[in-house]
Design goal:
The structure holds two protein chains of two kinds.
Chain A (H helix, E strand, L loop, with lengths): L4 H22 L2 H22 L5 H20 L1 H12 L6 H15 L6 H12 L4 H8 L3 H18 L8 H23 L6 H21 L4 H14 L2 H4 L19 H14 L7 H13 L9 H14 L3 H15 L1 H9 L11 H13 L3 H14 L3 H13 L2
Helix pairs in contact in A: 1-2, 1-3, 1-5, 2-3, 3-4, 5-6, 6-8, 6-9, 7-8, 7-10, 9-10, 9-11, 10-11, 11-13, 11-14, 13-14, 14-15, 15-16, 16-17, 16-18, 17-18, 18-19, 19-20
Chain B lengths: L1 E9 L9 H20 L3 E6 L7 E6 L2 E6 L7 E10 L3 H15 L3 E5 L8
Antiparallel strand pairs in B: 1-5, 1-6, 2-5, 3-4
Classes of the chains: A mainly alpha, B alpha+beta.
Chain lengths: 405, 120
């Protein structure tokens, strides 16, 4: 299959709009979703040969509608007549409709009644326009497994009677939080390119940024949508410097900052500047602000740690979590010295949510190393290496321990 | 999150010692379980291993790698098969393991596969 990146880009952009139109017209999210996938496949083959049609959107809508009707025809002749009539009666589409549809789709795919892996998979397929094979590859599971996961998610949407509409006002905030979380997890999954699947996984990061950008455009007044996009850009900016050629981790302080993407940093900072202060502050905006402070330091030594410490203080108030306290402990150590940081870490010991969490031991190792307590630092790094479920991280931590002699 | 769920059995001649009824039930159970995990979109891979008595162990002897008959560990129990599942949480992996334990009445080991994204 030949792939033209411009055509692929266009198809992925149109996918949620076409699907939204079909679902609004016919209901039956699962059947419509299959039909749109088939139309996308047909387009990716035909458009390469014959060129992109004048109105690619209506081409896709027509082909997908036809598939839907074919499906129904084989299902039932009676229904066919009704549905054909519906398909022929094409109302004019306004842009406002498209935007509402895409948003409604996103909320549908990130519905709380679906499991997290299902939310991720369905969002990538229905909103991102990725094929099942592409999604399966990205998550390193067999294609049949991913196909089953997607079809189960669609079944669930049908059986639960999840409506194709934006959530009611009372649920809106919670539902948006799930959508943001799904996009964040897609980004997170892709951010670290694990050996062997490098290209595919980077694509997942690009896809998460694309979806976050789309969400931000659809909801320009949502500060957290802007914050999430900024966080992704400001984090992804460091991608080239984060790992060695062999996949091993380079910590922030040792990264070659000339490898950081200036464009992404500029875009992220500009976005954040427009957002911060104009709307209610939230955890994504604050994490993005912290990332921006790191990104704007020319060298690790020039990092404005007092500002980072202040931001973590606000983040801890807005969305308290042991992981936030953990990060604040690092900032405390950088501003007030390692012993002060270690004292704050001590408050997390009794927290059940941190039991068996390798990050607590890893941070303790760093702070003990800063304090010159080499033996205790080595022990902490060893413990952390045993607890992590990330292979590159395990190697990094084990090396840290081995070098402390 | 991916987990490996491992079943253990007698290192030598495990299955051969079991009765016919149990064998048939076991085959049916495994078939249903695999089917369920496929349908739920969670199964990544599953394999049964040949009897431990068929194992070869390759080790260095006088500076040269040499293959010898028999399993590596000098234990009564040996790995007999595994599932790799991609699930939402560790709790779900344990739930799957519990279903197997309830049937085989043997301990099951659940271990996370190291493909988690690291912190950044």
């Amino acid at each position: 299959l030949r792939k033209d990146p411009r055509i692929e880009g266009l198809l992925r952009e149109l996918a949620p709009q076409v699907l939204g139109t079909l679902v609004r017209r016919h209901g039956q999210f699962d059947a419509c979703e299959d039909a749109v996938q088939e139309a996308l496949l047909a387009a990716s083959i035909q458009w390469v040969d014959k060129g992109v049609p004048d109105n690619p959107r209506s081409w896709l809508t027509t082909v997908a509608s036809r598939r839907l009707v074919d499906e129904w025809r084989s299902e039932s002749a009676r229904r066919r007549r009704q549905e054909t009539a519906a398909v022929l009666d094409l109302p004019a589409q306004g842009q406002a409709y498209d935007q509402d549809d895409t948003l409604a789709l996103l909320f549908l795919c990130c519905h709380p009644s679906l499991s997290v892996p299902s939310q991720l998979a369905l969002t990538l397929r229905a909103v991102g326009g990725l094929t099942t094979a592409e999604i399966a590859k990205a998550f390193m599971v067999p294609e049949a497994t991913m196909a089953q996961r997607i079809s189960r998610a669609k079944e669930r949407i049908r059986s639960e009677g999840v409506p194709f509409a934006p959530p009611p006002a009372a649920e809106r905030e919670d539902r948006l939080r799930v959508v943001l979380q799904v996009l964040y997890l897609i980004f997170n999954e892709g951010y670290f390119t694990s050996a062997g699947a490098e290209l595919q996984r980077s694509d997942l990061t690009a896809e998460a940024i694309r979806l976050a950008r789309m969400l931000h455009q659809l909801m320009p007044i949502e500060g957290e949508a802007a914050g999430l996009l900024a966080l992704m850009l400001l984090t992804d900016a460091r991608r080239a410097a984060r790992t060695e050629g062999d996949g091993s981790i380079v910590p922030l302080a040792e990264q070659r900052r000339e490898l950081w993407s200036k464009e992404k940093i500029e875009e992220g900072v500009a976005l954040l500047t427009r957002t911060l202060g104009s709307v209610q502050v939230g955890p994504y905006q604050l994490q993005a602000a912290i990332a921006a402070v790191h990104d704007e330091a020319a060298t690790a030594e020039e990092t404005d740690w007092p500002q980072i410490l202040a931001l973590y203080g606000v983040l801890e108030q807005v969305s308290p979590a042991p992981v936030v306290t953990l990060n604040r402990a690092v900032a405390v150590a950088m501003v007030h010295g390692p012993r002060a940081g270690l004292a704050l870490l001590g408050t997390l010991e009794a927290d059940e949510r941190m039991a068996n969490n390798h990050r607590l031991e890893a941070v303790r190792g760093h702070l003990l190393e800063m304090a010159g307590d080499v033996d205790a630092a080595r022990e902490s790094f060893r413990k952390a290496a045993r607890m992590t479920a990330s292979l590159p991280e395990q190697r990094y931590l084990a090396l840290k321990a081995a070098r402390l002699k | 999150m991916k987990y490996m769920i491992m079943t253990f059995g007698s290192a030598e001649g495990g299955l051969a010692a079991m009765g016919k009824e149990w064998m048939l039930e076991m085959i049916q159970f495994m078939h249903t379980l695999d089917d369920d995990l496929k349908k739920s979109g969670e199964l990544v891979d599953n394999q049964g291993l040949a009897d431990g008595s068929q194992a070869k162990t390759v080790r260095i002897q006088n500076g040269i790698p040499v293959a010898t008959d028999g399993p590596f560990a000098e234990a009564k129990e040996a790995l007999v098969g595994y599932w790799i599942v991609d699930v939402e949480s560790e709790a779900r992996a344990i739930e799957i393991a519990a279903r197997i334990v309830a049937f085989v009445k043997q301990p099951i080991e659940v271990r996370q596969v190291m493909d988690a994204p690291p912190d950044f």
